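stage 2 :: seqdesign
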């Protein structure tokens, strides 16, 4: 079997990272390079809209989730942060009474943030820092931040004392568990944010572009807001295939339904596919994979010009996730040699 030479994936954190594990497993099993790897070059464009300054450190949750997951260092139980983590520094900071106390800063994880912050402060770009961190983790993909510029998602909410305010996405997501009614998402700094080096090329020159089951609003949606990326996705000659993060009307993990409700999109596999829209109609996807239990989504998707199919979409272990990746690749008529 042949595989595309270059696959580019637009990823958030846990949903994207788990999908990538399966994608690499599938590629290594079906198109080996003889050294247990794959001949397919996988480039990941990571969401940096969730990035935040915490206690003087620059934290990039989605980049780190991809890097730790593919590098074998992720906490399997939590899906974020490091395996075997302790939280001594976090507890000491809380004892001083300094905010934010709600952010999960692990001791091992701190090493990554210290290196990143120090490097950024000495003038390296986030792309350069990410490449250096990946030298250590060897994720088996090229991980590019969507932008080297700061553009952070904020959530417009009603504060009992201050009225309508915009709080950082992480405060809404972690501290408030996405339970505070949100009026809108705004990306502060997005007007000035340029795509990081290599990002537009990775989309334009790919043989296949994948939207993994990442949050369509604050992960993939944030990446699409960076200048030029939406247009690159619309115009790439590569097919664009997406996988639904919604199964049976609910996000599998997390609170993506709260994000979808805020932007007026129903929490269903069909509605998210239609929200991305068919590329033939000015949207972002050619094909959309839904869960085998969501067969009623196929008809409206196809009617809108999106090729659609069903497959088991639960990423419970690397084997089922590899099968999911195979189903995703099978959704496009292979155009690669
Ligand atoms: P985050 O940045 O850590 O929130 O991660 P992502 O944006 O990459 O992915 C979050 C999305 O992954 C959530 O909306 C979930 O619905 C989705 N997700 C998590 N686990 C699974 C799974 O096993 N299967 C599918 N299809 N989606 C999943
Ligand atoms: Ca995220």
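stage 2 :: out
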């Amino acid at each position: 079997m042949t595989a595309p030479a270059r696959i580019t994936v637009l990823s958030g954190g846990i949903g994207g990272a788990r999908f990538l594990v399966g994608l690499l497993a599938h590629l290594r099993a079906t198109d080996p390079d003889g050294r247990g790897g794959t001949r397919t070059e996988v480039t990941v464009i990571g969401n940096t809209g969730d990035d935040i300054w915490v206690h003087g450190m620059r934290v990039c949750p989605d980049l780190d989730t991809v890097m730790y997951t593919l590098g074998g260092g992720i906490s399997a139980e939590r899906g974020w942060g490091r395996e075997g983590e302790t939280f001594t520094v976090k507890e000491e900071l809380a004892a001083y009474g300094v905010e934010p106390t709600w952010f999960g800063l692990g001791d091992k994880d701190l090493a990554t943030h210290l290196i990143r912050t120090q490097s950024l402060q000495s003038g390296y770009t986030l792309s350069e820092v990410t490449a250096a961190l990946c030298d250590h983790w060897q994720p088996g993909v090229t991980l590019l931040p969507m932008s080297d510029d700061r553009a952070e998602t904020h959530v417009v909410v009603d504060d009992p004392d201050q009225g309508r305010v915009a709080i950082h996405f992480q405060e809404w997501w972690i501290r408030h568990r996405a339970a505070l009614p949100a009026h809108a998402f705004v990306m502060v700094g997005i007007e000035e944010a340029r795509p990081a080096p290599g990002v537009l090329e990775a989309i334009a020159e790919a043989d296949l572009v994948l939207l993994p089951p990442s949050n369509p609003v604050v992960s993939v949606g944030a990446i699409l807001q960076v200048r030029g990326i939406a247009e690159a996705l619309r115009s790439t000659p590569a097919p664009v295939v997406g996988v639904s993060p919604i199964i049976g009307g609910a996000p599998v993990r997390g609170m993506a339904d709260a994000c979808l409700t805020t932007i007026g999109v129903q929490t269903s596999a069909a509605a998210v596919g239609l929200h991305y829209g068919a590329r033939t109609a000015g949207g972002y996807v050619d094909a959309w994979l839904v869960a085998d239990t969501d067969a009623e989504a196929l008809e409206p998707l196809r009617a809108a010009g999106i090729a659609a199919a069903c497959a088991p979409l639960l990423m419970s272990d690397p084997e089922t996730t590899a099968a999911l990746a195979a189903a995703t690749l099978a959704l496009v008529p292979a155009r690669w040699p």
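stage 3 :: structure notes
- The first strand starts at residue 6 and ends at 11.
- The longest helix spans residues 14-30.
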